[in-house]
Write a structure and sequence with these properties.
Length: about 475
């Protein structure tokens, strides 16, 4: 006789999943894992134990792709030995490279683009029952009719399983898919398709479910999230309108959104951030370069003067707000003078932090077909280090005013920074973020994870504020000190 528990264990599949890329990919993986758990899959962190191996990939820089192709290379032998294992490549590289993935790694079973992820569970079953090379991809942007291209890029946002989130009290929520900006260096409009806002009613419903599950912090996701617009018979909803609706949800304590596009940083949005207490006083608005000539070649659609004007509106409207940025160094034809203008912009804007990338030529983009990737790698590297040094100095300087202050921290979990007490015993270091997205590390205990605590800061580095918990009963007056 077979007992119910035995059926459970016979049915259990072991899933290994590796995710690279942006928060959008993290969320996609979460959704894929949740849908597979419903079919009896359990996670493993070892490809050897897994019967299903998935890579959720990124194409934004060559390095991200190389990493996945090498990981696939390492699986060749394993698949030879265990042909029943299903190997799938999902996400942006799947959409971009399509059948090329089978040419490079013929033992891959599935290639599934980010717009087709809802098909993953069925495709895995099919591949297991009938070995072969399966693809599920969205239409390319030149494939004709815009409506059918849009339809082929579906969002995959089933209601979720609370156990799948990185922490039970934090969640990503997609409000927009795709991108229509077509910066000349960028592959994202090709891999993620046309910009489409999700319905505000669906977003609010999802946020309510998250709040009911104990979620306290929601980060809204979109490639140009502040360009969000949704039109229906009731009228137009902008990001500021959506934030006001989400702000009303009981249980939600913090709201953030990434990534913003400089040209769409409208005053209504800044005012909502200023006026609504649950909104994180933090904006991620990539500048990419401080040179108008480079911005023109990148087709970013704004000038350095526009960016400065936006920064001064942010500083005037939301005093104390933290702003972070992205920069690409060594873009096609970037002269030393043009790079210096980027350094000057970083000096002037005093970002909380910046993500700095060496330009990586992406096949199929305008900069690949029309420009020359003419800056040698050692120069790109040097410019990257130089800009990073300026940014790190500024980050440290701007963390200094927090010394002696009290900040309100949503505790995320154990910190990677271990510590010992005076008697040499390990103590638990916790990490969390302030309302302006600064990372705080302090000694604590597990039961504080997920709580909003007042922490006094006694030491700062460029990346971290070190502190001590002041009180567990957060009082109104304590909350007002610092951002
Ligand atoms: N949608 C977001 C970010 C998309 S990709 C935005 O527009 O801001 C994240 C970052 O990767 C970009 O901001 C850019 O700085 C960098 N990036 C994109 N394409 C790149 C390329 N070809 N080479 C190097 N960095 C790139
Ligand atoms: Fe890429 Fe530009 Fe769109 Fe950002 S705005 S995703 S950099 S095309
Ligand atoms: Fe990469 Fe795709 Fe995100 S290319 S950065 S995973 S949208």
């Amino acid at each position: 006789m077979i007992l119910q528990e035995d059926i459970g264990s016979i049915m259990t599949h072991k899933l290994y999943i590796e995710t690279v890329g942006c928060q959008m990919n993290m969320l996609d993986s979460e959704m894929v894992v949740a849908s597979l758990r419903k079919r009896g899959y359990e996670l493993t962190d070892n490809t050897k134990d897994a019967d299903t191996i998935l890579f959720n990939t990124c194409s934004v820089r060559k390095h991200a792709e190389d990493k996945i192709y090498s990981a696939l290379g390492r699986l060749r032998l394993e698949k030879n030995r265990h042909p029943h294992k299903v190997i799938g490549v999902l996400g942006c590289m799947a959409q971009k490279d399509q059948k090329l993935i089978f040419d490079k790694a013929p033992y891959v079973d599935l290639v599934v683009g980010p717009g087709q992820l809802q098909q993953v569970p069925d495709l895995i079953d099919e591949a297991r029952n009938q070995p072969g090379q399966y693809t599920a991809l969205s239409l390319e942007r030149t494939a004709g009719n815009l409506e059918s291209i849009k339809r082929s890029h579906e969002t995959f946002d089933p209601m979720r399983d609370p156990t799948m989130r990185p922490t039970p009290f934090q969640a990503y929520l997609r409000i927009q898919i795709g991108c229509d900006k077509f910066c000349t260096y960028c592959i994202v409009p090709m891999t993620r398709g046309p910009e489409q806002g999700r319905s505000p009613d669906i977003i609010v419903d999802e946020a309510r479910v998250l709040a009911d599950q104990g979620c306290k912090e929601i980060t809204l996701l979109g490639q140009t999230v502040n360009s969000y617009r949704y039109r229906d018979e009731k009228g137009e909803t902008r990001l500021s309108d959506l934030l006001l609706r989400l702000h009303d949800i009981e249980g939600i304590e913090r709201l953030k959104f990434v990534t913003s596009y400089p040209k769409d940083m409208t005053d209504d949005l800044l005012q909502v951030i200023r006026d609504m207490p649950k909104l994180s006083k933090y904006l991620h608005v990539p500048a990419q370069s401080g040179s108008n000539e480079v911005l023109k070649r990148m087709k970013r659609g704004y000038t350095v003067e526009d960016y400065r004007e936006m920064m001064s509106r942010i500083r005037e409207t939301i005093p104390g707000a933290a702003v972070s940025s992205d920069f690409i160094v060594g873009f096609c034809g970037e002269t030393e003078e043009e790079f210096q203008l980027t350094c000057e912009l970083v000096e002037e804007c005093r970002f909380k932090n910046s993500f700095i990338f060496k330009y990586s030529e992406r096949p199929g983009t305008k900069s690949e077909t029309r420009m020359i990737d003419d800056i040698p790698d050692d120069i790109k590297k040097r410019r990257n280090n130089e800009l990073l040094a300026i940014q790190n100095r500024i980050s440290e300087e701007d963390n200094h005013p927090f010394l002696g202050e009290t900040v309100q921290v949503l505790v995320e979990g154990p910190s990677k920074l271990g510590a010992k007490n005076d008697t040499g015993q390990d103590v638990l270091q916790l990490t969390g973020r302030t309302q302006c997205d600064r990372i705080v590390v302090f000694e604590g205990n597990r039961r504080q994870i997920g709580q909003m605590l007042a922490v006094g800061i006694y030491e700062v580095t460029p990346f971290t504020l070190m502190g001590t918990v002041l009180t567990e009963h957060v009082q109104g007056d304590v909350l007002q000190i610092g951002l």
